[in-house]
Amino acid sequence: MVEKKFGHFFTDLVWINFGGGHHITRSDYDLDKLCDAIVHVQETYGVHVYLEPDEAVALEAGVLLSSVLDIAENDAHIAILDTSTTAHMPDVLEMPYRPDVFDAGQPHEKKYTYRLGGQTCLAGDVIGDYSFDKPLCIGQKIVFMDMAHYTMVKNTMFNGIGLPSIATYDPQTERVTLVKTFDYHDYKNRLS
After folding, report:
1. Dist CA 3 CA 8 (whole Å)
2. How far from the centroid of its chain's Cα atoms is residue 118's Cα?
3. Domains of the chain
4. How do residues 111-126 score in pLDDT, each as one tens digit?
5. DSSP code, position 159
6. pTM for the whole thing?
7. Residue 114 near residue 78 (C-beta atoms within 8 A)
8. Do 79 and 68 meet the contact criterion of CB atoms below 8 Å apart?
9. Backbone conformation region of residue 145, classed left if phi is above 0, alpha if psi is from -120 to 50, else beta
């Protein structure tokens, strides 16, 4: 489609960026199709093709561990978490992206459905609706899967919300090693 509409401009270029979002590390990604497209454009138009494989490098490489701060009732059961779409999950707002939650299902798939929300003042600080086998309780951990790609590189400290600590986990030894923590000085330094 891009070539059909804009291909006549390609001969005037030295390079072209095919962008990011290519999940080239996933087993079901059509890598041959991507390679064919790159070779076709390079040979047809004499340009260099660049990719931004950023997300593919971190795909399925990290989790975001969150805790339930409060449970509220409105039109639905609402669990307020110590994380935020605005500060820690911008892809949920911008893409939209619905991260998988460990041991949770789609809304109403399991017995108890909750709307998971963040702790900022923004009405849109909503992660989404998830269902669980048991009722959630204050202090319970919620594990968001596949979160390293945006939580690590595009986070903010909106409203002074702290950044999640970074840790590694060794499944062989079950050892968690804290790599980096963030505090008020990190917030202050972002403002200067």
Report:
1. 8
2. 15
3. 2-58 (no CATH), 64-155 (2.40.37.10)
4. 999 999 998 888 889 9
5. G
6. 0.74
7. yes
8. yes
9. beta
